[in-house]
Structures are given as C-alpha cells and as structure tokens.
Amino acid sequence: MAILSGGVSFGIASMPGKAFAQIPAAYAGQAEPGKILVIIQLGGGNDGLNTVIPGEDDLYYAARPNIAIQKTNALKLDQDMYLHPSMVGIKKLYDAGHVAIAQNIGYPNPNRSHFRATDIWNTGSAANVMWEEGWAGRYLMTQYPNFPIQMPKHPMAIQLGSVESLALQSDVGRFGTVFEDPNQFYQLVSGATADTDAPPATQAGDELGFLKQVAASSIQFANVIQASATKGKNSLTYPTTGLGRQLGIVSRLIAGGLTTPVYLVNIGGFDTHANQLTQHANLWKTISEAVSTFQTDMTNQNLADQISVMTFSEFGRRINQNGTLGTDHGTAAPMFVIGKTVRGGIIGANPDLKSVDANGDIKFKYDYRQVYSTVLRDHLGLDNVRTAAIFQSTFERLPIYKNSIEGMPEQVTMELLVPWPNPIRQSALIQYGIFEEATISLGVYDMQGRLMQNLFEGKRAVGSYALTLEGSLFASGHYILSLQNQRGGRLTRSIQIQND
Amino acid sequence: MPGATASNIRHLLSRSLFGFSSNDYEKAMGYGSLESLVDQAILAPLPLPAPPNAWVSLTPAQAQQDSGDAGRWYTELTQWWNKRMYTQGLNMQEKIVLFLHNHFACERDKVNYPQYMYQQNQLFRKFALGNFKQLVKEISIDPTMLIYLDGNNSRGAAPNENYGRELLELFTIGIGNYSENDVKQAAKALSGYQVRGLTVTYDPARSYTNASLTILGKTAKFNVNTLVDLIFEQKQTAEFICRKIYQNFVYYKADEVFVKKMADVFRANNYELKPLFRFLLLSDEFYKPSILASRIKDPQELIIGALKLLQIPVPDWNNAFELARMLQMQLFQPPDVAGWPGQREWISSTTYSHRGGFTDSLLSGKRYNGVNVTGKLNPLIYARTFSTCEKAVAFVNQLIDLFILFPISDAKRSFLLETMLEGTIAANWSTNTAQADVRIARLLKAMMRMPEFQLN
C-alpha cells in the first residue's frame, strides 16, 4: 500500500473517470500565459445604489430619505454618477483609468435568497436551473484537463479562507487550495498522509475518495505555496484588515512565482437590513484601501498587466429603505473590474429608478455572465467556443478591457435555439431566427474548434429558419453548433451526439 | 425491525451521539434490542440542566460589552455545552439541540448578549423531543431570533422582511413554495415585537393596520401563532423539515420516498419530534448498508468523539474550543442563517489538515503551533482497559472496529498492526515491552489520521 505523506508529491490514481468522458484531452485550452484573475466576493448582498450613487436622480433621494448619500459628500465620477465617500482609493484608480464599473448587472428572474442567489453567481447558471459545478471550476477544467489523475506543480486556484467556494468546485474534484496563511498551512500538512488505494464503489466510498483527493492535493501544494510566499515580497504595507491581509498574501504568492490563474478572497457583512450607514461605509473603506494597495504593489513589481480584480455580490438591495434604516434584498447592482488592462469608466446607462420590476426594484440591463464571459475571453484569453461551453450559451461581451470589442453589444440581431433533442441520437431539429438581414454561416465544430460540417452559408432575410442535423454523420461526442454573421456576432450551443 | 448487531449498534450510536467510547458500546449492546436501546436510553426524557453560571439571568447591559464579559461568557457557555455533549451517555438530546441550533441558525457576532443565546439553547433543549410547530411559534418571538433577523423593532407600516423571508425559506416551508408577496405580508404579521431586558414585549400599535393580510392564498388578520399554524397546514412544511433531518442524520442526499414516509409520521403525530425520531432510528432505511459510514463527521462529532474514544478524563476544553473554530464549527457562530451546510463543505485543504492536527494533539500534548494541550493520553493505562491488549492482532482489530466504521481491508489491518509492532513479531507483543507506550500512541495516531476516520 502506497502512503502519501507531507512533502512528497504524487497524484492520486483512483478518482472516478467520469470527467474524461466529458472532456476530451484536446479540449485543453491555450490561455494567454500568466494572466491572473483575483475575485473579491462581497458576501451578503452589496447595496449598489449607495456604492455607485445616482446623485442627480431625485427618485434616489425620495426612496431613501434617511440613508441616501448626499452627492456633496460623494466622489464624482462620469455621467452623473458618484462613488461612496469612503472609496477614496478606488476613486484614484478610476481617475487613472484603471476601474471599469459595469452597471445594472443581474439576470432574468432574480432570486432574493442569499443561498440560492450565491449559488447562481458561483455556478454561472440561469435562475431556473441548478448547476453543481462552479463557473471557475469549469474554466479550470479546460486549463487542467488531466486533473485529478495528474496534479500540476502549482495550485490551480487559491482561496484565502477555510470553506471552499462552489465557484471552484467541479464534478472531477475541487480545484481550490484553501488556506488562511501559507506558513500555517505548511505546518499543518506536514503530518498528513493519504494512500492511493481505490475506494470501493459505494456511497461511503465516494466520500472516502473525496477525502483522499483533498488530502493528496494539500500534500502536493503545501510546499510550493510556502516557498512562493517566502520568496515573494510586498512592496508596501497592506492595511491590517482581513481583506488587506488576504490581498497581501495573494501579492506575495504572485510575486513569488506561482502560476495559479484564479484567486478568490472575500469580505462579508453586506447584509445591511438595519442601521446600514456606518457599516456600509466601513466595508467600502476596507475594500478601497486594500484594493488600491494591491494595485500599487502589483504596479511597483511590474505585475499589474497580468492581473484583473473583479468584485461580485449575490444581489443588490431594494431601492427603498426599510423601517429600520437599512435595505432589504434586491436585484441588479454594479460590478467592478479593476486593473491596468481595463478600459476605465462607467459601462451602461445609469440605474433606472422609474421603470422598475414588479417588486419595485431595478431591472437588470446586462447579464452577470456577460461580465464573466468578458473576463474569460478578453483577460484570461479563453476562446469563444470554450467560453460559451462554460455557460452553455454565448453571452455578448461588454467593453471592459482595452482589447474588448468597441462599443456596447449590438441589438439582438439573431438567435439560435437549443437543438432538440440533445443529446442527439439520430437527427435533431436546428432552429434559428434572423432579426436583421445578414450574411451568416451555420456550422458544427469539434471541441478543438475545427469545422466538421457546414450547414448553411449565405445571405438570410429576416425570418425563422429550421433544418435537420443528421447525427449519424458524426462520431459520438461533444460538438459546438455555431451561428455567425458578417459583423462578428456569434452564437453557439453545445450539442452531444450519441451513436450506439 | 433491524437487529441489535454490532454493526447496527455502532451505526446508531455514531449518528445519535457525539461518538462513543468502548464503555458506551458495551452498555448499548446490553439492551438486547434496538427498540429497548432507543426507548430506554437514546430518546429517554431528560430534565433541563442547570445553567453555566449566574450571568444567565443578568439584564443585558453595555457594561458587559465594554468589560469583555460577553466574550468570556460565550466561551463559558460553549464549554458548558461541550461538557454536556461529552457526558451525554447514551442520550440523544444534545445531538438534537445542535440540529435545532443549526436549523434556526443565529450568530453570536450579531447577538451580542450570551444571556439570549443561552435562553435559546435551553429552548432547543426543552423542545428537542417536543412539538416542532410550537417551537417555531416560540422561536419567532425569541430574543435571539428577534435580534438576529431584525424582527426587533420591526413595525407593521414598514416592516423588516428579514425574518419573514427566512421563516419561510429556511425554517419551515422551503424555497419555491411561497411568493415574494407572501414574504412581505408575513413580515407584517410578525411585526410589533421588541426585546426589553431579558424578555420580549408586544405592542399592537407597532404592528400592522391593514384589515387583513393574504398569505399563502389565505386571507385573515394574521398574528404570529395563526401565521405559523397556516404554514404547518402546507404539505411541504413537514417534508421540508423531514428532508433536513434525513440529510443531517442519515445521508446528505435525501431519499424522497422515505422523506415522504417521515412526513406522514410527522403530520400524524401533530409535529411531535419524539415519534418522528423513533420512527427514523428504528427504520430499515436507517440501517441500509449504503448508509453506513457515508457521513463526514462534523467537527463536534470529531472532537467530542475522539475525546470519548480515548477516554480522556479531563479534556483540554480550550483546545476543543479553538479547534472547533479552526474546523469552521464555532458553536453559537454558524456561518450564516442557513447554518453549517455539512458533509463535504466541512472539508477543504485547511480544515482536513487541522482535523489530523487535532487528533495528533491528544497524543503528543501539543498543537501544530506548539501550544501545550493538557490531558494528554497515557497510552499504557488506556491500552490496559482493553481485555485484548496483550494479544497484538486481537487488540489492533478491536481498536479498528471501535475507531473506524468504514470497512477496512485486510491489507490495511496488517499495515496498522505493523505500525504498532514496528518490525517485531506479533507473538512477542506485550504492553510491558520497551517503547510499548510510544508504539500504541503511533497506532492511535495513524488510525485517526486515516481518511476513513472522518466518516461515520
């Protein structure tokens, strides 16, 4: 019986092979080397309207007689919007063009439960379906197709904390290495052991396999994490807040040479139902100071071009204040993307406090998966097909990065329905709609992006179209159906062909 | 009816208690049948315990916050509860109290006064085998809950929706079975309460003025009691609670067919918990082979359970308190109102490693960071409490069967035997040989470091 112990590196040979039926090795991505995403989770539901403030809108002041932030105290941005007064550091970054604020981010049929809404944001699903894999986990599957049979040298994702986020989980295993402090983690793991025996195929055996995988990856990564944290330095002193400490560690790990592409840090306390003014101000002061220190540090160490910071929270809050000087669970809210490679400024129209949803709350203008898709494609360099596969649908990108598409997403000019049936056994019905005359191409691609069959190419007038896809012409497996127009618009659907 | 086999008894004890010692196991076997064991011990009624200290009846005051008393009292309260878990014998009460604490989760960070959380904890004890519907009525106007979910000072004209939402979503009927409007209307029905000193007052003038409210399709002038009655008229409520009990005590993925059977029993007994738990603990479902050892121990089960296994006479309760915190299960401080999610969510690279560090500390007398741990095990005295201790193979097998519920292969049994023998032959083993204490400690450490040890 082979025993793994602290300091010895082995993969674990006994994990179920389920993933490999889904992810062909050729599906491995070629992300731009060295790009890093730092995600900041704002737990509890951040009050977007008191963060990025519509200071010229009378409706805002009317809805919040006691808790509105007066524009005279706030920090002026563009297009009549203001930042919360405690966000001085982020304002400086904004003025330097390093902050993109995407407004009114949400999704259809928003959920107001902390738990369900957090799951939605973590999995990248629509509100009406339950996914059990994280969106970052699915991204990491494209980057580490051999995990967990083979472990890479460096962690695939790092989360500062103790409980692993759903965002980093997947059917093949957990991508995150989770710890509070690199040295303490090393000390802890040094006594750990894990054997490589295959667990039995029972319910209890599944749980044992899971425990063994966590043990094996801790043993695998503890050394390199500690070594990087020792080698890497901070070029300036971080605030002594929880978030400051977390970003200080992220900085040392990156500066110390870890190639980990995804970091997750968090700050809680945003569930401001009562007496919210002081608490909300302190939270954003903490974030603003920690993020601006991190940004300066990365710039000093010539690492800033590699790194993007993105915030998210499970929902915004109600437009109207409640009876206890706070705000209850709401809907859409702004997201921040911060870094040297972003195209700074405000993206999208200001919150519309007049045309609201049935509950009197803000209607979302852009889907949160548009932001995720933009980050995946324009920052992490993932291609369109694989990005669409992560969300099982194409989301139009937003002009967040300097290399992003110019201007706002066009009006919807075409649609591609989900093929039926899917998986496809013999044939399936492909339906699409054209809302503006265009030259289009419709085709089936394999997971390496090679065109397998051209279904249609040419001009299409406005209308609905349907055709039949013969599954028997293909080998069994996963494919991408793609509809493109000459303006660069592209819609995709994942399809699976099963020929017995 | 399942039989009182060694395997069934160990399973029942591991799920209804915070682990068990070899003495507990022998005693449980003595009952002769699962039915006697459940009726006479596991679900036997117990009186309410004496409070941890006199502070529980002091009127909450700013002074205790300023002086740091609140923090010390919370530690005292936690250790009081830990000791109750450690000395529970064969009674399930504290396990159900913890289930209820996790179900009606409230955080001490927001409820600054331990007096309130002590009251709530005793309320859970009072209802551990009592009427769940009545508990929901009382928890709705419990000081801790009023503070934690902002019902305190909520007025009918502009109610705070926090408690109304969680009452429906997490405590009773479950997400998807009510509308946004139900939340808003329920918040009105729940308004008008204020925490005053150690008690709660109701002021009709602070409640709603509408002639009636429409909630879950019914229109009436609702108050807390009639609102809760209405919620329990919904079929989904019994199922929601039974599903949660199943997930906590049986397996984290619920069997919906069996959950419906539980819900039938729950409704037929007017939401009394005792007959529901009796039904569950004597059901064939509970003892199915696929259920055995399929649960990842929660940190309290791990910590209290390891102390019981090793029969530590005077455990280091500070160590237990600190480690539970590191393992993400600080009592009175669940992560949020949904409580601890459990099972795989207990485990990350950090918490898994801390689990091993804790069990090591009971043998080494030191934590991973060098801090001393009192009550370190004396391996020889411990070993000699086992009749098999002079026969290496039998001794190791007896320990494995006591410590680990997951089926252990012969190869692993030999590996553990060799860990103790360290090159000598089994026939030469005696607890009187040189270094026997070190070898026994090494065996115990290795068993508790096995991932199998984390399952019950």
Short description:
With 500 residues, chain A is of the alpha/beta class.
Write the SSE topology.
The complex is a heterodimer of chains A (about 500) and B (about 450).
Chain A: E1 3-5, H1 18-22, E2 36-42, E3 52-53, H2 58-63, E4 75-76, E5 82-83, H3 88-95, E6 99-106, H4 114-123, H5 135-143, E7 157-160, E8 169-170, E9 173-174, E10 176-179, H6 182-189, E11 193-195, H7 203-231, H8 242-255, E12 262-267, H9 276-300, E13 307-313, E14 333-338, E15 345-347, E16 366-367, H10 368-379, H11 384-391, E17 414-416, E18 427-434, E19 438-445, E20 451-460, E21 463-470, E22 477-485, E23 490-497
Parallel strand pairs in A: 2-12, 2-13, 6-15, 6-16, 7-10, 7-12
Antiparallel strand pairs in A: 1-11, 3-5, 4-5, 6-14, 8-9, 13-14, 17-18, 18-21, 19-20, 19-22, 22-23
Helix pairs in contact in A: 3-9, 5-11, 6-7, 7-8, 8-9, 10-11
Chain B: H1 6-16, H2 22-29, H3 34-42, H4 62-67, H5 69-86, H6 93-103, H7 114-126, H8 132-140, H9 143-148, H10 162-172, H11 180-189, E1 193-196, E2 199-202, E3 213-215, E4 218-220, H12 224-233, H13 235-249, H14 256-268, H15 273-281, H16 299-309, H17 317-326, H18 349-364, H19 379-383, H20 392-403, H21 410-421, H22 436-449
Helix pairs in contact in B: 5-17, 8-12, 10-11, 13-14, 14-15, 16-18, 17-18, 18-22, 20-21, 20-22, 21-22
Keywords summarizing the entry:
heterodimer, A: 500 residues, alpha/beta, Alkaline Phosphatase, subunit A, Immunoglobulin-like, nine-stranded mixed beta sheet, four-stranded antiparallel beta sheet, 11 helices, 23 strands, 23% strand, globular, disordered N terminus, B: 456 residues, mainly alpha, two-stranded antiparallel ribbon, two-stranded antiparallel sheet, 22 helices, 4 strands, 52% helix
